[in-house]
Amino acid sequence: MTTKRPNFIFILADDLGYADLGCTGARAPVSPNLDRMAAEGLLFTHGYSNSPVCSPTRFALITGRWQYRLRGAAEEPMTGRFRGDKIVGLPPEHPTLPSLLRDAGYRTALVGKWHLGYPPHFGPIKSGYQEFFGPMSGGVDYFNYTDSIGKRDLWEGEAPAEDHGYLTDALSDRAVRFIEDTPEGQPFLLSLHYTAPHWPWETREDHAESQRIGGRINHVDGGSLATYRRMIHHMDEGIGRVLAALQAKGLAEDTLVVFTSDNGGERFSDTWPFVGQKMDLLEGGIRVPLIARWPARIAPGGTSATPALTMDWCATMLEAAGVAPHPEYPLDGLSLLPLFADPAWNPQRRLYWRMLHRRQAALRDGDWKYLAMDGHEYLFDLAADERERANQARREPERLAAMRQAWQDWAAGLPPIPQEARATLVFGEAEIPRASH
What is the pLDDT along the chain (437 residues), one digit of tens a residue? Predict the structure, then answer.
């Protein structure tokens, strides 16, 4: 077994559905590199995001704690209305995965989406990353880098960046360069947070479509399955180049590479066999692709049904690096290192979620899931009914009551959702019809 301090690459897709990869059931061959990564490592069939919407999950990932502890994560998601805001964002004084690893001698970089608060008060450089290249906000146009209000949003450190072509390729290029430029023996954390396959629906060949929509990146009048799959393929090609760069530099053996999505998919995504999508605490909104590869510690070809949350990766990487969490900010996530040795390892813990949108609450305890939406309560046995179509609430009233109480006890230990927090939807039934059932 290696005695070197491992390197870490955390790759985050944006709005990728559970079944959008070949290794998770895709209906079209779009992800050969990620499929190979799964074959060479460990595929999680019960990987969960901390939230069904982007910025709350990112708060949990970078801090290793329930996102609800921070005011910014109450926004579903953070929007441009917080430009210049001094409060809503990731506080620079809060310890993070990159800041703790940086202080332990790691080189740290974020390549891609930040979405945890706007300058001048917040930003990746203020929260532990020594290098940053990407957008500060959420989705941006892949060619002109404008955000949802038409403002250009691509940064090099804390300064506006020049043109770099199609954004997915630009992020892949920068990630490869980071690996190539890292001095020999220097451990690193590379956070590679793609905006793909988040709207606008643009492939490398869609510069004309970018000009047509003119910064209206919600793009409700465009896109297709073919375009969406092509966007995933572009990302997959870039990931293949990143893995090849690791191999070429002799770093593959000692590097933990993780791939997942910030939440479930939407519009063109495939979440089969689950119901729901982004913004829902149904499985389709929170069950996401999750792959880990680390040749020194993970045997190839493994599959694990142990539930894992986004925030667990902070605890996992800190333990792997031999770095202690900050004592005043204890982690809520759980280290998954035992899982690498035994994919059947299962600590039998409870997983919790809450959402302002539709007054949602969820608790997973073993195979059972408690769900509240719009004032209604549901109880599902996920072992028998992953599609959440057979409500067991009336058949199991005692279990329902116990799980409701457990969720309430957990929620009581966290700050309440502020009155001024908002859930923001970019499209509704006027733009995209909703099925009756």
Answer: 445 899 999 999 999 999 999 999 999 999 999 999 999 999 999 999 999 999 999 999 999 999 999 999 999 999 989 999 999 999 999 999 999 999 999 999 999 999 999 999 999 999 999 999 999 999 999 999 999 889 999 999 999 999 999 999 999 999 999 999 999 999 999 999 999 999 999 999 999 999 999 989 999 999 999 999 999 999 999 999 999 999 999 999 999 999 999 999 999 999 999 999 999 999 999 999 999 999 999 999 999 999 999 999 999 999 999 999 999 999 999 999 999 999 999 999 999 999 999 999 999 999 999 999 999 999 999 999 999 999 999 999 999 999 999 999 999 999 999 999 999 998 899 999 988 87
Of 141, 111, 114, 17, give the one whose Cα is nearest residue 58.
114
Between the alpha carbon of residue 267 and those of residues 18, 206, 224, the distances in Å are 13, 19, 9
Tokens of 372: 């509240």
Q: How far apart are the C-alpha atoms of 434 and 356, rounded to whole Å? A: 21
Q: Which residues, in sequence order, are bridge partners of residue 364? A: 351, 369
CA 238, CA 363: separation in Å to the nearest integer?
Answer: 36
How many alpha carbons lie under 13 Å from residue 196 in its C-beta half-sphere? 29
Task: Kindly report whether the global pTM for this prediction surpasses the value 0.85.
Answer: yes
What angle separates helix 54-63 from helix 312-321, to the nearest 10 degrees? Answer: 30
Distance CA 241, CA 351 (A): 35
CA–CA distance, 35 with 54 (Å, rounded to integer): 24
User: How many other C-beta atoms lie within 10 A of the C-beta of residue 29?
Assistant: 10
Catalytic positions, please?
Answer: 54, 115
Q: CA-CA distance, 235 to 245, in Å (whole number)?
A: 15
Q: Is 105 left (phi over 0), alpha (psi -120 to 50) or beta?
A: left
Residues β-bridged to residue 84 = none
Contact 223, 268 (CB under 8 A): yes
Q: Say which amino acid occupies 95.
A: P
* Positive or negative: CA dihedral 264, 269, 273, 279: positive
**Rounded distance, CA 41 to CA 37, Å?**
6
* Beta partners for residue 108, in sequence order: 189
Q: Which residue has the tokens 């993070």?
A: 96
**Structure token pair of residue 297:** 């510690």
Tens of pLDDT, residue by residue over 273-284, are 999 999 999 999
243 contacts: CB under 8 Å, gap ≥ 6: 33, 37, 252, 257
Token representation of residue 149? 């209000």
Residues 233, 240: Cα–Cα separation, whole Å: 10
